[in-house]
Amino acid sequence: MTTHTDSADKLALRNTLIEGIGGYMTAHSIGVFAELGIADLIKDGVRGSDELAAESNTHEPSLRRLLRTLTAVGLATEPEPGRFGLTAVGSQLRSDSPDSLRAFSRMFCHPILLRAWQGLEHSVTTGERAFDHVYGKDFYTYVAEQGAANKLFNEAMGEESRIAAARLAAGYDFSRAEKIVDLGGGDGTLLAAVLPAHPHLKGIVFDSPGGVAEAPEVLKRAGIEERCEARAGDFFQDIPDDGDLYVIKSVFQDWSDEDSYALLRSCRAQIPASATLLIVGTVMPETSSPENPIMFFTDLNMLVNTGGRERTENEFRTMLEETGFSVERVLLGAAGPLSVIEARPAAAR
Q1: How far are the Cα atoms of 28, 172, 272, 345 from residue 244, in angstroms, in the given order?
Q2: Residue 131, Cβ density class (10 Å: 0-12 exposed, 13-18 middle, ≥19 buried)
Q3: What's the sign of the alpha-carbon dihedral 111, 116, 120, 122?
Q4: What is the dihedral of CA 80, 85, 89, 93, to 10 degrees?
Q5: CA 211, 215, 217, 221 torsion: positive or negative?
Q6: What pLDDT digit, counting tens, does each position of 218-231 carry?
Q7: The Cα angle at residue 225 between residues 235 and 140, in degrees rounded to 5
């Protein structure tokens, strides 16, 4: 005999699966909301869908349906029929919010990435990057050729870095350092948080020409352009040798084991023997659980787009030790959602 409780449990199980299946619908809805800048139009209070449609040049009945859907997933509110406000989650899509993730949302819901994700089966069955299979070239080469998308990508990475950068600036002891080199530092968001909090420091943001393109403006806005420079180059070939603390944040996840080993060997060969290396990034648990699905989706995103992956503490330790570094300590969660691995060049054998 089937009880009411059994039916409720089955319905809950069914809905959980269906919500997961419809995840791409949520992504598309958030992406359109962010692209149209609707959160900026709502920011001062509850607005009618007719006003919002007129100001965003959209079809009012369709916009209303979008807003009702986003209300159902927790980004908006509908206190009266057809009138909408923002939740704390939705407010992160305001472009003027200090915690804005609008560019991040636009980038990760961008047709470029969504199309690549349609190739997930190719990656899972072959181990190859779906992005290359879809576009005929690697992610970074392709995006660098797309002016607007490249700018958006840099802005998105800057937004993603803010919390980790602020936590690192506040929680790590920088007193022994004089010059930080942020390898793969993109638009300089990390050093724009660290240097103002530690006035004795100087810095270098080092990345590809496309990656570092927006850095001078970010450094200027932070008021540290006199203490920090942006340098373009290839960290597999030519790393600045005048730093004493080297930071690599959210970089190894982009690269295969082969490339990650190559980067660490490049670091070991070129940084001063007395320097400290900080790896700031996700440290995966040895076994999976539902507690933090974001890191596992990020891992799949690397499989699809860059050929990289997230790694466990033991995997980081092995890479570092095999490339001539000794691990001093691992600070789990020391940079907000990210962890910090502190290493130094090992004594030559």
Answers
A1: 44, 15, 7, 12
A2: buried
A3: positive
A4: 140
A5: positive
A6: 999 999 999 999 99
A7: 30
- pTM over cut 0.70: yes
In tens, the pLDDT along 4-44 reads 667 778 888 888 898 889 999 999 999 999 999 999 999 88
Q: Is 157 in contact with 205 (CB distance < 8 Å)?
A: no
The one-letter code for the residue type at 124 is V
Q: State the Cα–Cα distance between residues 166 and 175, nearest whole angstrom.
A: 16
Alpha carbons within 13 A on the beta-carbon side of 299? 14
Phi, psi of 270 (to 5 degrees): -115, -25
- When pLDDT is averaged across residues 312-326 and rounded to a whole number, the result is 96
In three-state form (DSSP H/G/I as H, E/B as E, the rest C), the secondary structure along the chain is: CCCHHHHHHHHHHHHHHHHHHCHHHHHHHHHHHHHHCHHHHHCCCCEEHHHHHHHHCCCHHHHHHHHHHHHHCCCEEEEECCEEEECCCHHHHCCCCCCCCHHHHHHHCCHHHHHHHCCHHHHHHHCCCHHHHHHCCCHHHHHHHCHHHHHHHHHHHHHHHHHHHHHHHHHCCCCCCCEEEEECCCCCHHHHHHHHHCCCCEEEEEECCCCCCCHHHHHHHCCCCCCEEEEECCCCCCCCCCCCEEEEECCHHHCCHHHHHHHHHHHHHHCCCCCEEEEEECEECCCCCCCCHHHHHHHHHHHHHCCCCCEEHHHHHHHHHHCCEEEEEEEEEEECCEEEEEEEECCCC
User: How far apart are the C-alpha atoms of 293 and 11, rounded to whole Å?
Assistant: 23
- 338 phi, psi to nearest 5 deg: -110, 160
pLDDT of residue 336: 79
